[in-house]
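Standup notes
- DV: blocked on the single-chain target, sequence here:
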Amino acid sequence: MFLLNKTEQNKKFAVLYFVEAETTTKNAEKPKILKSRKTLLKLFFMEHMGTIASDNYVAFTFFIGTMAMMAASVFFFFELNNTSPKWRTSVLVSGLITFIAAVHYYYMRGYNLETGESPTFFRYVDWILTVPLMCVEFYLITKKAGAKISLLWKLIFASLVMLVTGYIGEVLDRDGSVLWGVLSGAAYFYIAYLVWFGEVSKLAETAGPQVAKATRILAWFVLVGWAIYPLGYILGTPGGLFGIKLVEDPKAALHAMDIVYNIADAINKIGFGLVIYALSRKED
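- DV (later): unblocked, structure below
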């Protein structure tokens, strides 16, 4: 069972409350603010970790994803004032990407715990907001080298095609998942081409060695990090890898898909932001 009995949860909260009250009474000399923070932390972990069974790896990765994305957001937002003005927008976008992901991961975790199903719709809502923002990062760091707005729209359009076709294959037309997966993959390879050999790569070379190095690292994220997502798609759709199913049990396949997606999100979204942050420090 993924969900604990509600009565048991209420008992734990009641015990926690009275224990904390007794501790506060006995240690009145300690600052109350510290006790309040401890109480909030206990309540938070009781609520969020206490409902996750030890063998529910999907919900656990959602929880870790939420915490990791939120921690990254706080870091990027707090560092804005210490960032050079010319890179401040890039670091802000990095914080927005992880913050949006953190909010969606919180809801995806709750949905998964309540229903036991994959939160595919919420995941694609998250991607439709965050993936184009990741493409915006390429435009922002090459802007000073002459990147035009047309490059930005190319990247955003390709990312939307990649996501929309992926959603159709994963949700609306699962029988045609292979075809939609190929179309989504074509859009992905177009983005990879722009980043490795196209306008992004050429502009980065003229923007200075640090920008060129950062762009190349981000390009590796696109080529390797983003390539993790097709594995999740293959696991979670009936078409598999051109008809070959990597996991026979449909339920186990969906669980594997969610875990793969969660790992990929953490690597790519946080990793993207850290590369941008490192660039902003080297260029100060």
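- Follow-up: The chain has eleven helices and no strands.
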